[in-house]
Amino acid sequence: MAQYRLQQLAEHVSGRLRGNPEATVESIAALDKAQPNQLSFISNAKFRERLQQSVAGCLLVSETDVEFCHADSNLIVVNDPYIAYALIAQLMDTTPQAASGIAKSAVLSPSVILGDNVSIGANAVIEDGVVLGDNVVIGAGCFVGKNSKIGAGTQLWANVTVYHEVEIGQDCLIQAAAVIGADGFGYANDKGKWIKIPQRGQVIIGNRVEIGACTCIDRGALDATIIEDNVIIDNLCQIAHNVHIGSGTAVAGGVIMAGSLTVGKYCLIGGASVINGHMSICDGVTVTGMSMVMRPITEPGVYSSGIPLQSNKDWRKTAALTMNISEMNRRLKALEREHGKA
Asked: Which contacts qualify for 255-263: CB closer than 8 Å, 24 or more apart?
C-alpha cells in the first residue's frame, strides 16, 4: 500500500502542518476508528470530544479545532477539513478504471473517431460517427449510439447506454447502467389510442457532470434536454424530456423530474422528491427530501412538503383529519360569516 508523507499531504491541501513532516499514513478512516497508519478528519463540532482520544497518525482540523486535540497529535490545519478530506481521498483513491486498452471483443464502427489513450471494455459497441475525446474510458458492455460525442477524460462504467446524437462534455463520470438519451414520454391520445411522438431532440451534458447508476435522462421532444456543468445526479433518478438543470445543482437519489422543467443553478434537490413539469425553479433553492413540488419556485430558500414519520396509530388520525379538511373549511367559513353578521 502506498504511503504518503504528512508534508506532502499538507502541501496538497494548502494546510499548515503541526507535527512530524516525515511521518506517513496509508489511508483514511473515521475519527473513532483511525489507527496510527491512518489519517482522519473532523467536520462537525459535536465530535470534538473524540479528538483527544484519537490515535490517528494525522488529523485534518480547522483552526478552531486545534485546542481540542492532544498535544502530541500530528495535525494538518485547514480552512475546511471536509474539503481537505475530499482532496486527499482523491489522491489516495484506488478505484480502477472501467476499462484499460481496447478489448478485442469491443465492436467499433470504422467511422469512429478516437482521441489519444482511449480505453474501451469488453463487448462494448460504438456506432457510426461517434467521437471519443482523449483519455475517454468506456466500460464493458456499454453502447454509444450514432453520432454521439464524448469529451476528453469522461468515464462510463459498465453497461451504460448512450443513445444517438448525445453530447457529453469533458471529465464526466457516468455510473453503471445509466441510460442517456432514451425517448421522452411523448404521446398523443386519439380517442383512447396512444400515438407515439418521435423524440427528435438531443441530450447535451456539460463538463464535470456525474450521473449515478440506473439514472435515466430522456432526450428532448424537439429541443435538447440540457444538464449544465458541474451538476451531480445520484442513482435511480428520472430526468424527463426537455428538462434543463443549471450548473452546480445536486440531485439526490430517486428524484423524478417531469418534462420541460427548468431547475436553476446551485440548487439542492433532496432524495425521492417529485417535481412537476412545464415550470421553473430559480437559482439557490433547496428542496428537502420526499417533497412534492407542484408550482414554480421564484425565491431562493429551503422548501419542504410531505408528512414526517409517525406511529401508524397517529398517522391514521392525521389521514382522517386530512380527508375531512374540506368539511372543516366549509364549517369554518360558515362560522366566520356568522361572526361577521353578529
From this structure: 259/184, 259/185, 259/186, 259/218, 259/221
Residue 229: inside a domain: yes
153 lies in the same domain as 263: yes
What is the Cβ-side half-sphere exposure of residue 311, based on CA atoms within 13 angstroms?
Answer: 2
Of 157, 175, 251, the C-alpha closest to 212 is: 175
Tell me if 192 is assigned to some domain. Answer: yes
Is 303 exposed, middle or buried, given 0-12, 13-18 or 19+ CB atoms closer than 10 A?
middle
Tell me if residue 241 is catalytic: yes
pTM above 0.90? Answer: yes
Structural domain count of the chain: 3
Q: Catalytic pick from 12, 70, 164, 241?
A: 241
| Assigned domain for 268 exists | yes
Assess whether 80 and 142 both reside in one domain.
no
> DSSP states of 208-222 as a string?
S-EE-TT-EEEPPSS
| Residue finishing a domain among 66, 92, 118 | 92
Q: Which domain holds residue 322?
A: 312-341
Burial class (CB in 10 A: 0-12, 13-18, 19+), 338: exposed
CB 247 within 8 A of CB 262: no
Are residues 282 and 298 in contact, defined by beta-carbon separation less than 8 angstroms?
Answer: yes
Strands laid side by side in the 38-41 sheet: 16-18, 75-77, 58-61, 38-41, 27-28
pLDDT at 341: 57
Segment-wise mean pLDDT, segments of 10 residues, the chain, 342 residues = 96 98 97 96 94 96 96 97 98 97 98 98 98 98 98 98 98 98 98 98 98 98 98 98 98 98 98 98 98 98 92 94 91 88 53
Last residue of a domain, one of 92, 123, 154: 92
Q: Are residues 262 and 133 in the same domain?
A: yes
| b/e burial code for range 135-146 (CB count within 10 A of at least 16 → b) | bbbbbbbbbbbe
Q: Are strands 301-303 and 250-251 parallel, antiparallel or unpaired?
A: unpaired
| 337 and 246 share one domain | no
Q: What is the DSSP string of 220-251?
A: PSSS-EEE-TT-EE-TT-EE-TT-EE-TT-EE
